[in-house]
Amino acid sequence: MGYELRVTLFGTSLLQNGHQRSQITRAQNRGLLALLALNANIFVTYDWAIEALWGGRPPSSARTQIHTGVHAIRRALRKLAAEDLLTSNSCGYALRIDPGQVDATLFERKVQQARSASAVDNHDEATTLLEEGLALWSGPALGDAAGAFVAGARQRLDQQRASAIEDLIALEMRAGRHTDVVDRFSAVIDQFPLRERLRGQLMLAQFRAGNKVAAIENYQQFRTQLADKIGLDPSPQLRALQHAIIRDDISLDGSAQQFATPFDSAIPVV
């Protein structure tokens, strides 16, 4: 293709071609754009779109609203690309682009490539790919889009982001950059307060960076939040890490190969 069209779904929903940008009006139309972009090159039927946008309670004007949204998206696309990228048939519509032109899909690709690189011990490449993928996030996934499917899609992408952050932390800790991990990722806990792997990684990084008190406080905070929000206790693995930190277990210093914990491991292959 002779253009550089990009669909941005992280933060503000945008269509971009180089320095040119085109925004879609109305949150529901942005939701329709997200649905088409996340399913690039697949015909999204009217029934599928109606269910995605309104769940089981569509208005009588649902098809008309979809037609109106498609026209808005098509106008925005035509400002940026010479081709008509939104094709239609009697069943529905398809956005004809490389899925990698959608930031959400590109992010998923880079995470998978990073895990493949890590599986063959190419940790520098894995780190670079994860950094590139996470840099695509300029705001919440589908942050300005509306539709019944949006909350579920946002949650799925947010959890993938959390996993990618954990994978990157694992690689940084493998390289011995524990203080950098603490400085850079401590605030991420506020976004994902119940992610146990993330919590354990930061506890271990704090301990290795010489702040045992912060690591213990981190655990206590997590235990309280977990009990208050879902009525559970931390896992045996996290409790074991906490006890090891309290007694200054030498195996936690990062040099002892026999200490194996999911909070200190390289990123997994999936």
TrEMBL record:
Gene3D superfamilies: Tetratricopeptide repeat domain (1.25.40.10), Winged helix-like DNA-binding domain superfamily/Winged helix DNA-binding domain (1.10.10.10). One of its GO terms (molecular function) is DNA binding. Residues 102-246 form the Bacterial transcriptional activator domain. Residues 18-95 form the OmpR/PhoB-type domain. The keyword rRNA-binding does not apply. The keyword Transcription applies. It comes from the Bacteria. Pfam families: BTAD (PF03704). This is DNA-binding SARP family transcriptional activator. It comes from Micromonospora luteifusca.
